[in-house]
C-alpha cells in the first residue's frame, strides 16, 4: 500500500469534512425541531393534525431519501411561482436543498422515536402532575420531555448515526462533502481500496465520537438507574 | 389529460417502464437480501463463536458496514469490482476495460450492507432461544447438525422475522442508491423520465409513490408472516 498516496488522500478528504459536518449539524437541528412539531401533532386530539402527522411519517419513512432529495432539488424548480419567489435564491443552492431534504427525512424517523419515548411515560406520573395542577407547557417541560427524551435516547443515537451516513447523498446533488470527494478521487486515480479505506476511517471515527457523546449524555441523564455508590459521598 | 398520457401505458407514457423498473428494484433487493442472509448467518456465527479472532473479525465487519455510508460501499463494490474483473481479464489475455454488470455490483453491495444488519438480527434471535432447550437437545444426544435443523433453525427463523422485515425495508431504500451505477431501477428510471420530459416534479412524485407502495405492501407481508410463524406461541407483548 502506498503510504504517500494514502496521506494525500486523507488530506483531500479531511478538507471536505467541514461540509459533511455542516450538513449533519443543520439537518439534525432543523429535523429535531420539526420532529417535535410532528410528534405534537401525532399525539394531539385533533384528528386532522393526527392524520397529517401519520401521513408525513409514512411518506418520509417509506420512500428513499435520494428520491426526496431529487424531488426538492430538481422538482421544485419546475414551478414558476417558486422560481420567481423570494425563496428561489435559497432553493437554487444544492446545499440548502440537501439540508432541507435531510431535515425533512430525519424528522419523520425522529418523530416516531420520540413518540415511543412518550409512550414509555407511566400514566400515573402524568396523573400525579395533573392532580397538583400542572398542565400544558409546565407538564411538558417538567414531566413529559425529560422522561420521553431519556427513553428515546438510545434509539435516537442510532438515528443520528444514520444521519451522518445520509449526508453522503448530498454529493449526488453536487455538494462536495467527504463521499463526493472520495468518488471524484476514485474516478481520477482508480485506486478504489485506498480511497475507500481513508473515507471509511473518517466516517467511522466521526460516528464513534458521536456515539460516545450520546452515551455520555445518557449516563448523565440517568443517575437514578445507576447503582448506589458503595461509600456515600459526604454532602457539603 | 397530458399528465395521464405521460405516466400512462400509451406509446408516449412511462407507466410500463416504471413498472418494469419497480420489478428491477424488487429483484435487486431480493438478491441482496439473499446474499445478506448468507453473510449474516456466517458473521453471526463468527460473533457467537468461542474463538476470539472470529469474534473480533465479526465485530469489525458489522462496525464497518453499518458505520460507513451506503453510497461509499456501492462505489467500492462497483469500481473495485470492475478493476478486479479487468485485472482478471488482463491475466486471461483480454485487453481493455471490463465492467462489472451493475445488477451484480448493486445487489452485491446492498447485500454486503444488509449482511451486517442481518448478522445482528440473527445473533439476537439466537440469543433469544431459551438456553434450557439447547441443553436438553444436547442431553438427549442430538449432534450439531440435528440441533441446528430441529432446535436452532426454526426458532431463529421465528424470532428473526421482525428484524428481517426491517432489513428488507432498509435494503429496499438502499437499492435506490444503486441507480448511480446506471442500473435501470425505479430511481434511475424516474430520473431518466424526469430528465427527458422536463417534468421532474411529476416523475419523482410518481417514483416516490411506487416506493411507498412497495414498502407498505412488504410491511403487510412481513406482519402476516410473523403472525403465521407465531401461531403456535402463547400471546405475548409486542406481538404483530
Automatic annotation (TrEMBL), chain A:
Chain ranges of the ABC transmembrane type-1 domain: 13-215
The organism's place on the tree of life at top rank: Bacteria
Record localization: Cell inner membrane; Cell membrane
One protein family per Pfam: BPD_transp_1
Transmembrane segments: 20-43, 55-75, 95-114, 195-217
Predominant location: membrane
Keywords for this protein: Cell inner membrane, Cell membrane, Membrane, Transmembrane, Transmembrane helix, Transport
Bilayer disposition of the protein: Multi-pass membrane protein
Protein family (similarity comment): Belongs to the binding-protein-dependent transport system permease family. HisMQ subfamily.
PANTHER family: ARGININE ABC TRANSPORTER PERMEASE PROTEIN ARTM, MEMBRANE COMPONENT OF AMINO ACID ABC TRANSPORTER
Protein name: Octopine/nopaline transport system permease protein
Organism from which the protein derives: Pararhizobium capsulatum DSM 1112
TrEMBL record, chain B:
Membrane topology annotation: Multi-pass membrane protein
Classification via SUPFAM superfamilies: MetI-like
Keyword flag Zinc-finger: no
Keywords for this protein: Cell inner membrane, Cell membrane, Membrane, Transmembrane, Transmembrane helix, Transport
Subcellular location: Cell inner membrane; Cell membrane
Short name of any one Pfam family annotated for the protein: BPD_transp_1
Positions of the ABC transmembrane type-1 domain: 18-222
Membrane-crossing segments per the record: 20-44, 56-78, 98-117, 201-218
Record-given protein name: Octopine/nopaline transport system permease protein
